[in-house]
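2024-03-11 09:14:02 DEBUG pipeline.ingest accepted 1 chain
2024-03-11 09:14:02 DEBUG pipeline.ingest length=118
2024-03-11 09:14:03 DEBUG pipeline.predict start
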Amino acid sequence: MENIKRPEDMELEKSKSHIIVEIIEYMANSVVIKTIIKKSTGNISIMSFDSGEGLTEKISPFDTFAQIIEGKAEIVIDKVSHHLTSGEGIIIPAHSSSFIKPDGRFKMIQTIIKSGYE
């Protein structure tokens, strides 16, 4: 279920506008991840999920904001299901178990904040 591809592990060009939903494509039977910005205090990534692809259960030591930018998905946090559609987002609290289940193809932005946990 988790065939992850990283086409370019580089940040996007700075001081240039981007149509976020268009900077990442779907890839058959895969989850594609592109880094928008990566810093020691956190990072922002955009992801595309083909139908049937998701992310397995994990626990992050940091707060994570997930926003669906195309399609819809189910995000399960501590066994509570949340169905999100385009434009909706949710904060996954630090130290909570979570996983992402697809509802067809979808794209999302994931923001991880690492500061404040020192």
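2024-03-11 09:14:41 DEBUG pipeline.report The chain has one domain: 4-113.
2024-03-11 09:14:41 DEBUG pipeline.predict end
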